[in-house]
Structure formats: C-alpha cells, structure tokens
Write a structure and sequence with these properties.
The chain has 185 residues and is an alpha/beta fold. It is built from two helices and eight strands, in the order αββββββββα.
Length: 185
C-alpha cells in the first residue's frame, strides 16, 4: 500500500472513532433520542427531587414512557415542579402516583408512574395529584445516626440521659436503713 492509501484508512478510522464517541456521549446524557413525537405534558410537584435531571426517563413498570422536560421551583410553595412529556400511546389514570426512584443503589434517578384504578385519564396539562419525593441518602443516614445516638444516652450529648419518671401506682421503696426483711435494728 502506498502512503496516501494508509493515510486515507487512518482518517476513516479516526472519523468513525470520533463519531462513536459523540454517539456514546449523547446516549449517556439521555440526548440521543431522535423521536419527534410531541406527546402530552403532565405536571408533578415534589417536596424534594434529589438528583433528578432534565431528560431523565419517566417509566411505568420498567418501560420508558416519556422524559422529564423541565424542572422549576414554585416560589410560593417552594415545591419542585417537574414537567413530564409522555408519549401519546401511553395513557394514565387521574389517580396515578408519580415517585422519584433510583436505578440501582447509586444509579440515575427517574420518575416512576404507577397507574391507579380510576376510569378518567390524565390529559394535556393535567397535574399528577399524588407524588412521592426522592429518598435522599444523606438525610436517611443522618436520621439513622441521630436515632442511634439518642438510644445510647440522649440526643444532646451533654451528660447522662434523664432518669425515667417514677410510676405513682408502683409500691414505694423501703425507707432508708431498712433491710430486706423489713425490720430495723
């Protein structure tokens, strides 16, 4: 092979490698969806969204049925509002529950939709009434640690735990100086 043929093949190989890197980057960032379906939009309000991001999947029974399109903060209620774009082929009932879940132990967060039994379906612009916020691992760990500290001697850490209150219905203890037999010497 001559020099120009080798250079041509190296150039093709490098271009394919760069294309693969770009494709994988888009796939990892949930940006590789080429669907043009508009679908319909739903709104869900959460106290805490944890690490939920725009373009995160919306799943029902493990099947991706949409994406998180927008996340914003309501400045009056201080709740996070997630706007979901649901594919038009999937319909959900009015009593659907939206939960923020995590794939694996420390994986990506997504919204899980659990349909209820209502006969009325959600439509464009409706709000999912029942939501469950994200479980924040740090908050759970601190609650566990402080709970254990309270069991081991008080939550303040400033000395021994207070003595339990006396039960007024319990019989009184023998007077000082009395022996076990109840007689004094």
């Amino acid at each position: 092979m001559n020099r120009t043929t080798i250079d041509l093949w190296v150039g093709i190989f490098v271009a394919l490698g760069l294309g693969a890197i770009v494709f994988l980057s888009l796939k990892v960032g949930n940006l590789a969806s080429f669907k043009t379906d508009e679908g319909y939009h739903l709104e869900a309000r959460f106290d805490n969204i944890g690490g939920l991001k725009v373009r995160a999947p919306v799943k029902s029974s493990g099947v991706v049925v949409g994406r998180v399109e927008r996340i914003r903060l309501d400045t009056k209620t201080y709740e996070a509002i997630a706007t979901l774009r649901i594919e038009p082929s999937y319909l959900f009932t009015k009593d659907t529950i939206a939960s923020i879940l995590t794939s694996g132990l420390l994986g990506e967060q997504y919204i899980g939709l659990e349909a209820g039994g209502d006969t009325v379906m959600l439509k464009e612009g409706d709000r999912v009434a029942k939501t469950q916020s994200a479980v924040v691992l740090e908050k759970m760990l601190s609650q566990f640690m402080f709970g254990k500290a309270a069991e081991m001697g008080g939550s303040s850490g400033n000395g021994p735990a207070p003595a339990p209150a006396a039960n007024p219905a319990a019989p009184s203890a023998p007077a000082a100086g009395a022996n076990a037999g109840g007689t004094t010497k």
